Amino acid sequence: MEAMTERKPPGMSYETWVESQIAHGVERGDFDNLAGAGKPLPRRSLDESAYEWVLAKARQENLDVFGMLPPGLALRKEREDLPRRALALPSEAAVRALAEDYNVRVQAFWRRPQESRWSPVPGLADVEALVAQWRAARTEQEPEVAPPSPRAVPGRGRFPWWRRRRPE
């Protein structure tokens, strides 16, 4: 199939120009032997909404579904996901930074004019509660281990007799 590079001539309507392009393509055989030619379109359920169809298509194409959400709803979903994301972080400072970054973006969202008065308004994340959840999950995952005794630590204590050197 050849790429369409020519421009619409001035004074010709778009409909006429498009129809002539299609007619030229049929003459060249660009539409012969196309995949799915002569087959009916796949039947969709009458109960399926356009939103559900878009979600199914996005999942089929491995696209990020969160990118299709309105900004307020995306921020709400992100707030619900904060505890799970915080568990993967190594330190309390990183958990605080995650929550504070989210709160900065929510406050910036609040300052912007909204498209609709019905847009979802996200709330701030409770930094201290998130840190407390992170600490509680850490203590459950990692039982406290007593520090090893000085005798059990390799390299401590006396050397064996054959390794001792006497000063000369």
Q: What would your notes on this structure say?
A:
- There is one protein chain.
- By secondary structure, the chain is mainly alpha-helical.
- The chain has a domain at 70-141.
- 46% of the residues lie in helices and 0% in strands.
- The protein is built from five helices and no strands.
- It has helices at 14-28, 50-60, 71-87, 92-111, 127-141.
- Helix 3 runs antiparallel to helix 4 (92-111), helix 3 packs parallel to helix 5 and helix 4 runs antiparallel to helix 5.
- Class per helix and strand makeup: mainly alpha
Total count of strands = 0
Mean pLDDT: 82
Strand content: under 5%
Give the overall silhouette: elongated
As a whole number of angstroms, the C-alpha radius of gyration is 32 Å
How many H/I helices?
5
Order of helices and strands: HHHHH
Give the low-pLDDT segments: none
Distance between the termini: 91 Å
* Largest sheet, strands/sense/barrel: none
Helical fraction? 40-55%
